[in-house]
Design brief:
The complex is a heterodimer of chains A (854) and B (411). By secondary structure, chain A is of the alpha+beta class. Chain A contains 21 helices and 39 strands. In chain A, helix 13 packs across helix 17 and helix 14 runs parallel beside helix 15. Chain B has 411 residues and is of the alpha/beta class. In chain B, helix 7 packs antiparallel against helix 11. Chain B is elongated and about 85 Å long. Classes of the chains: A alpha+beta (854), B alpha/beta (411). Chains A and B meet through helix 1, helix 3, strand 12, helix 8 and helix 10 of A and helix 1, helix 3, helix 7, helix 8 and helix 9 of B.
C-alpha cells in the first residue's frame, strides 16, 4: 500500500457512517428536490410549531433521557455517543478504572471546567395556555410579558420553559392579554429540576456556547466554528485556511468541561466549476468523467447561497442547470430558481450537476424525505483537500507550516480563545444570565508514563530510547526471530530501471545476512513499461514455487501497481513487493531502503521480526478496521486480523466487501470464525481469551458496536461449540479525537512522552475508557488515542488492559517503532485499504496467514 | 390562514418586493417591521443593494435569527466589488431616527394593520415626512377580500387593529401623497382564480409610493435624532475594502507566479531528462517508498509530519550548494497572462505599488520582477542574472506579445 493511498483513506474515512443496525438501505426518492427553500441558512425547515408530540411527552415523563432542546423537525445525531453506559455492566471497573504502573507525570489537558454556582440546577417548566394559542411566537410573546417574574434568562420552545431560577410556587398562574384584548391564562408548572449533568442541561450548555461563538463572529462549517476574519492564505495552491475551534461540552469524569481544540478548515477560493475546467484541460476527454468523479466524490462543498455543507456523492453528467424540478406545483429550472431566489447568475448552462444525498431527514411537515440535493458546480466552493493535493508533498508541507502547532502554541491559542470569550461583554452577559462561567485555565491533571518495553529477537533483547520510540538503530545487526529464505524469487524491472535493479539485488545481498535472512540469486525479468506486458511477465514467470515477486515500477502510476496486486493477491496468490524506481536511484539511501524492503519482504512471507513479552496465555488479539470506498458503488471493506501465536508475530487476515447499508460485522462474523479455526490449527486449542480492538468507529456510531457488534462477536464464538466460552473484551479504538495533553517539562510545554496514559479526569464516567499517547512526534502536537472498553468479561485489571494495549502498539512490523494504534488495527487498516484501493476483490484465502498486504 | 394561495401569500408578497428591487435597483433599503428578518434574508442576495436595514419594535424577535444575516462562509472566499452593510435596529416606526433618512426604498409589509389607529398617522408622518424614501412599498390586508377566506371571523390575525377596504386604503394613500409629495400606484398580490377581481380585489393590497420631489438625499446630519437601538451590524467583505483587495491580489499574484515557475521548472526538467512526462506533483507512491509508508503509519495524522521529510530537505539543501536561489517572475508577464490580476489592480504600476509594501512578496531591487524562492533546488541549474537588462525591457514594454512569453518559458 502506498503513502498516498493511506492519505486518501484518511480523508475518506472522516464523516463516513455505517447506518444503524437493521437500517434498511433506502433508495433515494425518485423526484429530485433541490435544497428546498426552508434550508436557507442553518435553521432547517420549521414544521408547524404545535406543542410537543405525544411521543416527546412520553419521553419527557420517562426521565428526560431523550428530550432534545431547541430541536424541531429533525433528529440531530449524537456525535458524542452520550447515553451509552457500558461501564455499569462491568463489575470490575465500577469503582475504579485506573491503572497503577508507571511514573506519575503532571499534564494539562485541553479542557476548561464549567463553573456554576453551587447547587446550580436548571428548572424545567411546562407551560399551558388557556385558551390554546396556535402560534409559537404569540405564545412566547404572551409568556414573556411577565419578565419581572420569569427573569431575563429563559429558554422557551413553545411548550417547555427552562429557567435558571426557581419560581415561588410549583405552579404559577399568569394572566396575559393579546393586543386585541383577548385574555389568556398561562399556567407554568414545574416539572423537573435538572442537575448540571442531566442530558438536557448538557445540551443546553452546548446551545449557549454555540450562541457565544456566533457572538464572536465565528462561522459554522460542519460541526465546528471558524474565524473568517483572519484567514491564512497559501496563495501558491489557492488555499485559504480558517483557524477555528472544535468544542464539546460534556460531563467528564471530574466535572462538566468544555473540550476545545484548535482546528483548521481548508477552503478554496475557486468554485467546483473552476476546478472542473482546470481538470478538463489536464486530462484526456474520454477519461474526464472518471477522473473528475474520483477527485470530487467525497469532498465537502460550501454553497454561495447558504451556510450548509454538502458532501458530493455523485456527479449527474446528464443534468444541467437548465433541468427543472418541481417547486410547489410548478416546474422551475435550476437556473431560474437561483436567479429569482438568490439573484445568482449561472454563466455555464452546460455544466453537469453535483449530487449530494442529504441524510435521512424528514421532508417538510413530516412528508417523505427529500431526494438528493442537486448542486450547481458554479455555485459551490470546494473545501478540504483532494486526494491529489494530499499526496502533493509541497502542498502538505506548506499547509503544515500553518496548521501544525507546537504544543506550546496550541496551549497558547486555547488560552487565548477562553480569554476572548471572557473579554467579550456580550458573550459574558449571556453566560452571566445563566449563572455560568468558564475556568480561566486549562485543566491540570496527573497521568502516568509506562516504562519502556523490552523487545526480543530470539535470544537477544534490547530497549529503545524512550523519547524517540523507535528501534531501527537498536535492531541493527540482530537477526530477526524467523526468516523464511528468499529462494526462488523474481525481480521484474524495466529497461530504464536496469541499474536500480542491479543496485537493489546487491544491497539486498549485503543487508540480508545480518538480518538472518538467507537470500538466493533472484530470477531477473525485464518487462516493457506497459501494464499488459507487466502482467504477461508475471503470468509467464510466477510459478507455484515462487516465494516472492519484486517489481520495480518506473513511476508511481497507480494502475500498474493495482494490476500487480490484483494478479498476485487474487489469481495467483504470491507475496509481492513493489518498488518505485526513483526510490532506488539515490545511492546514498540505498542501504537503508534495502533493509526496510528486506524486512517487509520477510514479513510478507511469514517471517517474524521481534516480540514483546505478553504475560497472558492462550490469548487471541483481533483487530478490525474498515475502509469506505466512496467511488466504486459505495462499497465498504471490513478487515479482520487475528493473532495466531503467543508472541503476536503471526496473524490471520481476512476481509469482506459489502454494499452500502450492510453492517460490517455481518461479514466479519464468518471471518472471526475462520480466524478461530486457524488458531485451533496453529495451537491445537481454541483461545481462552479474545480481545477485539475495533477501529473505524465514527462519532455517533458507538451504539451500533455496543448493541449489535458485540452480540455478533459472541454469536461467532458460540458457533465454535456449545461449551466454548472464552473470556471476551471488546475495545473501541479512536484516533480522531479532540483531546490533547501537554506535558510541562523543565518549565517548557511539550508533548507527553510515548507511553503516557490518562485514565482519569477527562475520561467519561459512564465508560471504561482511557487514553494512550503511544507514538512520538518530532514536530507539532501529538494526538492521543482513545480506547473504550465496551465489553469485558476478561476480568483483566485496568492496568493490565492498558499495558497490553500499549505493548500491542509495538508490534507493527512495518515500522520499527511504536505506532498510534495496536498493531492488529493497523494491519486491518492496511488490508482493507489495499483491497479497497487496488484489488477490489477478496484476496485469495491461501494468503490468509501472511501479512501479504504490508 | 391563506391556504388556497400557491405559492403562499407571504411568499408572493416577498416576491413582489424582490421583483420591484430587481427592476428599480435601489441601493439603500429599509424593512420596517422586519420581524425575524425573513425578507431581509432574501434581499441580502440582491447585491445591487448596498445598505440593508431592518427595524422592529421587538428586540427579542429580531435577535432570534439576526445572525443568519451574516455573510455566508463563501462570501469571504471570492469577494466581489459589490458591498453590503446590514444593520438591524430596535425601534418604533412612529418615532424618528436620523439614521433611517435618505433611503431609496422603504418596505412596510403587513405592518400598519398592527398599529393602533392613531399611530398610523404618526407612522405616515415619520415615514413620508421624515425618512422620506425615494420609494416605499406598503402592504396591508384587503378586508373586501375577507368573505372569500373560509372560516374567517373578525380580522385575519388577532393582533390586527384594523383591516382596510380597498377604498380606505386608497384614501389613506392619496392623503399621504397630497401631504408629503408622493404619487402612488395601488396593486396587490393574491387573486381570486375565477376572475372576480373587480368584486374583491387582491387579498393583500400593496401601495407603491414614489416621491415627486427629486430632491437630493443628503440630510442635515447635525441635528441627529437617534431613538433606535442598534442591535446588529455587519459589513460584507468586498474588494472595495483595500485590505481585502490587497489580500486577494497578493493571493492571485502568488498563485500565478508560482504556477508559471512550476511550468517552467517542469519544462526544464523534461528537457534535461529527455522524457515526455514527468509527474512531479505526486509524492513517491507505491511500496517503493517503504520509508515513507512507515513514516506515515507511525504518525497517522495530517498534522504530524516527522523527521523523514525534513531530513530530506536538509540533506538536499546541503548537497546542492543552495545560495538562496530565486526565480524572478516579471510583473509585466503576470500582468499580461493573468486577466484577474490586471482587472484587480487596473494598471501595471498599481500592481507594483500594491506589491511593494506587501510583506509576503519579495520584489527584485528594480521592482520589475517578483522573486520566488526555488525550493529543493535540484532542478534549477541556470542562475538568473537579475541585472539582465532583458527583464527590465520586458518590464517596460507593455505591448509584449504572447509569442515572446512562450519563449521565456521554453528558454
Amino acid at each position: 500500500m502506498t503513502g498516498r493511498a493511506r492519505a486518501r483513506s484518511r480523508g475518506r474515512a472522516r464523516g463516513q457512517e455505517t447506518p444503524a443496525p437493521g437500517a434498511v438501505p433506502r433508495e433515494p426518492a425518485p423526484v429530485e428536490v433541490p435544497h428546498a427553500e426552508g434550508k436557507v441558512g442553518r435553521g432547517r425547515q420549521k414544521t408547524t410549531p404545535g406543542p410537543f408530540t405525544e411521543e416527546a411527552l412520553l419521553q419527557i415523563s420517562a426521565g428526560f433521557q431523550q428530550v432534545k432542546l431547541g430541536e424541531r423537525g429533525g433528529h440531530r445525531r449524537d456525535f458524542n455517543d452520550a447515553g451509552i453506559n457500558t461501564r455499569q455492566a462491568m463489575e470490575h471497573v465500577k469503582d475504579s478504572k485506573s491503572g497503577t504502573s508507571g511514573r506519575a507525570i503532571q499534564l494539562s489537558a485541553n479542557f476548561f471546567r464549567i463553573l456554576s454556582r453551587p447547587q446550580w440546577v436548571l428548572y424545567q417548566y411546562h407551560v399551558d395556555f388557556k385558551p390554546p394559542m396556535e402560534s409559537r411566537r404569540l405564545r412566547s410573546a404572551l409568556l414573556f410579558q411577565h419578565e419581572e417574574i420569569l427573569g431575563s434568562a429563559r429558554s422557551f420552545d413553545g411548550a417547555l420553559l427552562f429557567l435558571p431560577n426557581r419560581l415561588h410556587s410549583k405552579e404559577t398562574v399568569l394572566h396575559s392579554e393579546t393586543r386585541n384584548g383577548e385574555k389568556v391564562q398561562i399556567t407554568v408548572t414545574l416539572t423537573n429540576e435538572l442537575p448540571p449533568v442531566s442530558p438536557v442541561c448538557i445540551q443546553f450548555y452546548n446551545i449557549i456556547f454555540r450562541r457565544i461563538l456566533r457572538v464572536l463572529d465565528m462561522q459554522q462549517i460542519g460541526r465546528n466554528y471558524y474565524n473568517p476574519h483572519d484567514p491564512l492564505e497559501i496563495a501558491k495552491h489557492r488555499l485559504t485556511i480558517w483557524p477555528g475551534y472544535t468544542t464539546t461540552i460534556l460531563p467528564y469524569e471530574s466535572a462538566i468541561m468544555l473540550c476545545t481544540d484548535v482546528s483548521h478548515r481548508v477552503l478554496r477560493s475557486e468554485t467546483v466549476l473552476d476546478f472542473m475546467y482546470n481538470l478538463k484541460q489536464q486530462c484526456p476527454a474520454q477519461r474526464f468523467p472518471d477522473i473528475c468523479a474520483k477527485e470530487l466524490v467525497g469532498l465537502v462543498v460550501l454553497t454561495k447561497y447558504n451556510n450548509k455543507t454538502y458532501r458530493v456523492d455523485d456527479i449527474a453528467w446528464d443534468h444541467t442547470p437548465n433541468n427543472t424540478f418541481k417547486r410547489g406545483d410548478t416546474e422551475i429550472s435550476f437556473r431560474n430558481y437561483f436567479k429569482t431566489q438568490y439573484g445568482l447568475d449561472i454563466t455555464d448552462g452546460n455544466q453537469a450537476m453535483l449530487v449530494s444525498h442529504v441524510k435521512k431527514k424528514m421532508g417538510p411537515s413530516g412528508g417523505p424525505p427529500p431526494g438528493p440535493a442537486m448542486l450547481v458546480p458554479e455555485l459551490c466552493y470546494l473545501t478540504g483537500l483532494t486526494d491529489k493535493m494530499r499526496s502533493d508533498f509541497s502542498i502538505m508541507k506548506d499547509l503544515s507550516v500553518h496548521t501544525r502547532l507546537s504544543p506550546e502554541d496550541r496551549e497558547k491559542r486555547l488560552n487565548r480563545f477562553i480569554m476572548n470569550i471572557q473579554k467579550n461583554s456580550e458573550a459574558q452577559s449571556e453566560l452571566d444570565k445563566w449563572g455560568l462561567s468558564f475556568d480561566k485555565q486549562l485543566l491540570q491533571m496527573t497521568g502516568r508514563v509506562l516504562p519502556v518495553e523490552r523487545l526480543s529477537q530470539g535470544q537477544r533483547s534490547y530497549e529503545y530510547e524512550p523519547w524517540s520510540a523507535d528501534w531501527a538503530k537498536e535492531m541493527r545487526g540482530i537477526p530477526i526471530i524467523n526468516a523464511p529464505p528468499l529462494a526462488n524469487w523474481l525481480l521484474l524491472y524495466t529497461r530504464r530501471n536496469g541499474n536500480e535493479a542491479q543496485g537493489l539485488t546487491q544491497s539486498l545481498n549485503k543487508v540480508c545476512g545480518p538480518l538472518g535472512i538467507r537470500i538466493q540469486r533472484a530470477v531477473m525479468v525485464e518487462y516493457d513499461d506497459h501494464q499488459e506486458s507487466l502482467l504477461k511477465a508475471l503470468q509467464h514467470n510466477v510459478g507455484p514455487d515462487t516465494t516472492m515477486v519484486v517489481v520495480i515500477l518506473s513511476s508511481n502510476r497507480q494502475d500498474k501497481y493495482d494490476s500487480v496486486k490484483k494478479y498476485l493477491c487474487v489469481d495467483c496468490p504470491t507475496p509481492s513487493q513493489c518498488v518505485v524506481g526513483r526510490t532506488l536511484s539515490k545511492p546514498q539511501g540505498l542501504m537503508s531502503v534495502a533493509t526496510k524492503i528486506a524486512l517487509q519482504m520477510a514479513c510478507k512471507m511469514g517471517g517474524e521480526l521481534w516480540s514483546v513479552e505478553i504475560p497472558l496465555k492462550q490469548l487471541m488479539i483481533v483487530g478490525i478496521d474498515c475502509y469506505h470506498d466512496s467511488t466504486a458503488g459505495k462499497r465498504s471493506i471490513g478487515a479482520l486480523v487475528a493473532s495466531l501465536n503467543q508472541s503476536m508475530s503471526r496473524w490471520f487476515s481476512r476481509c469482506v466487501l459489502q454494499h452500502k447499508g450492510q453492517e460490517i460485522m455481518d461479514g466479519l462474523k464468518t471471518c472471526l470464525g475462520s480466524a478461530m479455526k486457524s488458531y485451533l490449527k496453529f495451537n491445537k486449542c481454541l483461545p481462552s481469551r479474545i480481545i477485539v480492538f475495533r477501529d473505524g468507529v465514527g462519532d455517533g456510531q458507538l451504539h451500533s458496536v455496543v448493541n449489535y457488534e458485540v452480540a455478533q462477536i459472541m454469536e461467532a464464538i458460540k458457533s465454535m461449540g456449545q461449551d466454548y466460552a472464552p473470556k471476551l473484551s471488546v475495545v473501541v479504538v479512536k484516533k480522531r479525537i479532540n483531546s490533547r495533553f501537554f506535558a510541562h517539562i523543565n518549565g517548557k510545554v511539550s508533548n507527553p512522552p510515548p507511553g503516557t496514559i490518562v485514565d482519569s479526569a477527562v475520561t467519561r464516567p459512564e465508560w471504561y475508557d482511557f487514553y494512550i499517547v503511544s507514538q512520538a512526534v518530532r514536530q507539532g502536537s501529538v494526538s492521543p488515542t482513545h480506547y473504550n472498553v465496551v465489553y469485558d468479561t476478561s476480568g483483566l485489571k485496568p492496568d493490565h488492559m492498558q499495558r497490553l494495549t500499549y505493548k500491542l502498539c509495538h508490534m507493527y512490523y512495518n515500522w520499527q517503532g511504536i505506532i498510534r494504534v495496536p498493531a492488529p488495527c493497523q494491519y486491518a487498516h492496511k488490508l482493507a485499504f489495499l483491497v479497497g484501493q487496488s484489488i477490489h476483490r477478496e484476496p485469495n484465502v491461501k494468503l490468509d496467514d501472511l501479512l501479504f498486504y504490508l | 390562514m391563506e391556504p388556497f394561495f400557491n405559492p403562499p401569500l407571504h411568499k408572493q408578497r416577498h416576491q413582489f418586493v424582490i421583483d420591484f428591487i430587481e427592476k428599480n435597483k435601489p441601493k439603500k433599503v429599509v424593512d420596517l417591521g422586519c420581524c425575524e428578518c425573513t425578507l431581509l434574508k432574501k434581499l441580502k442576495f440582491h447585491r445591487e443593494i448596498e445598505h440593508l436595514v431592518g427595524v422592529d419594535i421587538d428586540e427579542a424577535i429580531v435577535k432570534r435569527k439576526m445572525h443568519s444575516l451574516a455573510p455566508v462562509s463563501t462570501d469571504y472566499l471570492q469577494p466581489g466589488y459589490e458591498q453590503l452593510c446590514v444593520e438591524l435596529y430596535q425601534g418604533s416606526v412612529t418615532e424618528r431616527d436620523a439614521r433611517l433618512r435618505g433611503f431609496d426604498l422603504a418596505l412596510s409589509i403587513e405592518l400598519i394593520e398592527h398599529l393602533p389607529v392613531p399611530d398610523v398617522e404618526r407612522f405616515s408622518e415619520v415615514l413620508f415626512g421624515y425618512m422620506a424614501p425615494v420609494r416605499a412599498i406598503i402592504s396591508t390586508p384587503n378586508s373586501d377580500f375577507n368573505p372569500l377566506l373560509p372560516g374567517l371571523r373578525g380580522f385575519r390575525h388577532p393582533d390586527h387593529k384594523f383591516e382596510w377596504t380597498r377604498q380606505e386604503f386608497q384614501s389613506w394613500a392619496e392623503k399621504v401623497c397630497a401631504e408629503f409629495g408622493y404619487e402612488v400606484d395601488i396593486t396587490g398580490v393574491g387573486q381570486v382564480p375565477d376572475g372576480r377581481w373587480e368584486q374583491f380585489g387582491f387579498c393583500s393590497q400593496i401601495a407603491v409610493f414614489h416621491r415627486l420631489k427629486s430632491g437630493c438625499n443628503v440630510f442635515d446630519q447635525s441635528q441627529e435624532e437617534t431613538s433606535y437601538t442598534l442591535l446588529y451590524s455587519v459589513n460584507y467583505p468586498t474588494l472595495r475594502d483595500n485590505n481585502v483587495l490587497r489580500r486577494v491580489l497578493v493571493s492571485e499574484v502568488l498563485f500565478w507566479a508560482e504556477s508559471m515557475k512550476r511550468r517552467w521548472t517542469e519544462a526544464k526538467d523534461t528537457e534535461e531528462r529527455g522524457e515526455g512526462l514527468v509527474t512531479k506533483h505526486s509524492a513517491a507512491c507505491g511500496e517503493g517508498s517503504p520509508t515513507e509508508d512507515q513514516r506515515r503509519s507511525a504518525s497517522d495524522s495530517g498534522e504530524e509530519f516527522d523527521v523523514w521529510c525534513t531530513n530530506r530537505i536538509r540533506f538536499q539543501s546541503g548537497a546542492t550548494t543552495r545560495s538562496v536561489q530565486s526565480v524572478p517572475v516579471p510583473l509585466s508577464l503576470l500582468w499580461v497572462s493573468c486577466p484577474r490580476v490586471s482587472s484587480l489592480c487596473g494598471s501595471l504600476s498599481n500592481l507594483r505599488h500594491y506589491l511593494m509594501d506587501e510583506p509576503l512578496v519579495r520584489l527584485s531591487p528594480d521592482g520589475y520582477a517578483l522573486l520566488l524562492e526555488q525550493e529543493g533546488g535540484s532542478y534549477i541549474y541556470i542562475q538568473f542574472d537579475l541585472d539582465d537588462s532583458g527583464y527590465a525591457e520586458v518590464g517596460l514594454n507593455q505591448t509584449l506579445n504572447s509569442a515572446a512569453l512562450e519563449n521565456w518559458e521554453e528558454d
